[in-house]
Amino acid sequence: MSQFQPAAGASTADVGTSLDSRERLLALLDQWVDLGWLRALDSAMARFLDTEADAAGQPPSPLLLLLVALTSHQLGRGHVCLDLELMAKEGFNDALSLPPEDESVPDRCELPSDVLAQVTPEHWQEALGHPLLVAQPGLGYDGRSPLVRAGSRVYLRRFWRYEQTVFQRLQARLGSVPGLEYPTPSQGSEAALISALTVLFPGHQEDVDWQKVACANAARQGFSVITGGPGTGKTTTVVKLLAALQHGAMTSADEPRVLRIQLAAPTGKAAARLNESIAGAVKGLDLGGLPEPELLRAAIPTEVTTLHRLLGAIPGSRRFRHDRLNPLMADVLVIDEASMVDLEMMARVLEALPDDARLILLGDKDQLASVDAGAVLGELCQRAATGHYWPSTGAWLGEVTGYPVPRVLLDEQGKPLDQAITLLRRSYRFDEHSGIGQLAAAVNQGCEGGRSGEQARQLFSAGYADLARIPVPAASADEVMARHCVEGGRESFLNGGEGRQDRGGAIDPPAGYRHYLETMKSSRPDRLAGIEVWDQWAASVLEAFGRFQVLAALRKGRYGVEGLNKQIAARLKAMGLISVTDGWYPGRPVLVTRNDYGLGLMNGDIGIALMIPARQWENGQESVDPEHLVLRVAFPSGDGAGDIRWVLPSRLQQIETVYAMTVHKSQGSEFDHACLVLPDRISPVLTRELVYTGITRAKFWFSLLLPDQGVFDVALARQVNRSSGLGACLFGEG
Ligand SMILES: Nc1ncnc2c1ncn2[C@@H]1O[C@H](COP(=O)(O)OP(=O)(O)OP(=O)(O)O)[C@@H](O)[C@H]1O
């Protein structure tokens, strides 16, 4: 039984410290806000609830006020709830990251460990017994209390609701709530599925073809997850799955019809990327053995939208046009890059999805979790590697695909959720000769005793052509980093990056930022050139920029985005590649940091400022005015068609220069050469998931700028561990 279960007769009297009085506690919260340890919002919430409860004649205890502020603080750090048991286990200061690492503690400032040193489970129990502010589900929960407590977890009400929505709707989709099952989505006959799979996956391979198994498994149920590392064929598989589903529906004996399929991704950038790859995959499908192959192909959509667009974001509100009362018009919804979907968005999607629609999540379970609270995909897939398929699931998959599920992955005690998950286990992008693939696997492979740090270190010196580790001495850090980022560091790679091939084609040596700026200058069109020529030029500069990206773990400091942006710009200017380092200038690359529906730009879009002739309208036709040059920012159109959208710099409100971007922001993107910069000191954001995400952004070249080897080892030994109750609910542990 949890130590946080009710106990009688406890009192917080004589606990000491700032828990002596509400005034002292609120003053401490303000001090933490002043130090930048808490958000103003965290302390304001405690203060607001204090006032409200006091006015209702039920003043809360100082300990409860502290709990409110800390629960809000944890939310800001991506945790769905504050887990008291975990906090006691990990140590208060570490679990709360207070003070944030690297921060010194001023004299006379209490730390959580000081304040909470004498607090016992009974004290928590008493504080959480507040009748107005805290509710316990099942014990007269009225849906109005601002806090909800479930076992040792404390939630802000909104997040408790999101978690319950996701849990209950997934359970219903999985058919594991007696009497509450959603109708099984129409899937056509098993015979139709088998014939589609036979055409889509011709031949038989020696090992299990997990792509085929994933298709069959996802076709079988209303909810499924297909997870796998980079290049394991998630897109390829989902396209085949959609073909199989569509074939089943179109040839259904009862009610032949075409399914309404929606494709979505959490960010504009990820949507644009899927847009491009899915169009190619649909075109390349060999449907020859199925009836009316071209009709079938035409019934597989290639247009991908963002989740915000799909649900119909209402400006200035958290609400969406599509919800429980106004569900989406869809029979199938596919969400790519699902690791980036936070708990709130997942709840909104599940609410807006018709009960009989099919939901398919695609993503890499090992990537960084969403920026906002929750780690939904990671939690759903926590047992993916070990299968836990019921023998009946294994037998059915074996019959339909011809690949029996290996015995080690079978488990009589498996959970309904386990049956819905398929892990793609083979990368088609990175073979055994790929250092990037090996490195990503080593980083992922357990973190006990710093083993993966050592393994990863060995890989850098094992002669892989695509990997380079560049030590960064503190004395010359700015110089070393800026040079690498501008030149691309060819000399750090085997054979100077020459002579590599990919599927028969030569791979260009690793580029740095010099490359796109030289492309900008050398291929600049003649002044008199027409609009299309300027568009093509912009597309080539954007494409050249996409060949390289510096990724930083941190925002601030010398090794963070801000410091790197400054150093790189200064070096580019010193070399005459850009004219100034601040404000707008030709060649400035910018990252959109917030969706702007008016301009049609999405968070994550990258544009480059370019000097072009002004455009004019004459006789109803647009042309260029060669005498009048203006600075405009070129963005790819986002539909994969290669068109350019030109935007006035002054209209871009939410952008930042993007020589360096955070690893978080890079999710869903891919670059020929990715360079990861780690800081010289350990910080809470440095985790295995962050390093893995950074590495897997690289397609052909990966370089690591490393001021301190120890930081790399420590980062690999730490995993993101977000407090949440979803996994425990779904796997029946709590
Ligand atoms: N079964 C297969 N046999 C051969 N090549 C394959 C197979 N599956 C996928 N590929 C190839 O591997 C590459 C990656 O496939 P795909 O884009 O589907 O993977 P992904 O998991 O979606 O990648 P990402 O990590 O970019 O999301 C593509 O070039 C694809 O054509």
Automatic annotation (TrEMBL):
<keyword id="KW-0540">Nuclease</keyword>
<dbReference type="InterPro" id="IPR027417">
    <property type="entry name" value="P-loop_NTPase"/>
</dbReference>
<dbReference type="Pfam" id="PF13245">
    <property type="entry name" value="AAA_19"/>
</dbReference>
<dbReference type="InterPro" id="IPR027785">
    <property type="entry name" value="UvrD-like_helicase_C"/>
</dbReference>
<feature type="domain" description="UvrD-like helicase C-terminal">
    <location>
        <begin position="658"/>
        <end position="701"/>
    </location>
</feature>
<dbReference type="GO" id="GO:0017116">
    <property type="term" value="F:single-stranded DNA helicase activity"/>
</dbReference>
<comment type="subunit">
    <text>Heterotrimer of RecB, RecC and RecD. All subunits contribute to DNA-binding.</text>
</comment>
<keyword id="KW-0238">DNA-binding</keyword>
<feature type="binding site">
    <location>
        <begin position="228"/>
        <end position="235"/>
    </location>
    <ligand>
        <name>ATP</name>
    </ligand>
</feature>
<dbReference type="GO" id="GO:0005524">
    <property type="term" value="F:ATP binding"/>
</dbReference>
<dbReference type="Pfam" id="PF21185">
    <property type="entry name" value="RecD_N"/>
</dbReference>
<keyword id="KW-0378">Hydrolase</keyword>
<keyword id="KW-0547">Nucleotide-binding</keyword>
<dbReference type="GO" id="GO:0009338">
    <property type="term" value="C:exodeoxyribonuclease V complex"/>
</dbReference>
<keyword id="KW-0413">Isomerase</keyword>
<keyword id="KW-0234">DNA repair</keyword>
<dbReference type="GO" id="GO:0043139">
    <property type="term" value="F:5'-3' DNA helicase activity"/>
</dbReference>
<comment type="function">
    <text>A helicase/nuclease that prepares dsDNA breaks (DSB) for recombinational DNA repair. Binds to DSBs and unwinds DNA via a highly rapid and processive ATP-dependent bidirectional helicase activity. Unwinds dsDNA until it encounters a Chi (crossover hotspot instigator) sequence from the 3' direction. Cuts ssDNA a few nucleotides 3' to the Chi site. The properties and activities of the enzyme are changed at Chi. The Chi-altered holoenzyme produces a long 3'-ssDNA overhang and facilitates RecA-binding to the ssDNA for homologous DNA recombination and repair.</text>
</comment>
<comment type="similarity">
    <text>Belongs to the RecD family.</text>
</comment>
<dbReference type="GO" id="GO:0000724">
    <property type="term" value="P:double-strand break repair via homologous recombination"/>
</dbReference>
<keyword id="KW-0269">Exonuclease</keyword>
<feature type="domain" description="RecBCD enzyme subunit RecD N-terminal">
    <location>
        <begin position="35"/>
        <end position="155"/>
    </location>
</feature>
<dbReference type="Pfam" id="PF13538">
    <property type="entry name" value="UvrD_C_2"/>
</dbReference>
<protein>
    <recommendedName>
        <fullName>RecBCD enzyme subunit RecD</fullName>
        <ecNumber>5.6.2.3</ecNumber>
    </recommendedName>
</protein>
<dbReference type="GO" id="GO:0016887">
    <property type="term" value="F:ATP hydrolysis activity"/>
</dbReference>
<keyword id="KW-0227">DNA damage</keyword>
<dbReference type="InterPro" id="IPR050534">
    <property type="entry name" value="Coronavir_polyprotein_1ab"/>
</dbReference>
<keyword id="KW-0067">ATP-binding</keyword>
<dbReference type="GO" id="GO:0008854">
    <property type="term" value="F:exodeoxyribonuclease V activity"/>
</dbReference>
<dbReference type="InterPro" id="IPR006344">
    <property type="entry name" value="RecD"/>
</dbReference>
<dbReference type="InterPro" id="IPR049550">
    <property type="entry name" value="RecD_N"/>
</dbReference>
<dbReference type="GO" id="GO:0003677">
    <property type="term" value="F:DNA binding"/>
</dbReference>
<keyword id="KW-0347">Helicase</keyword>
<dbReference type="InterPro" id="IPR041851">
    <property type="entry name" value="RecD_N_sf"/>
</dbReference>
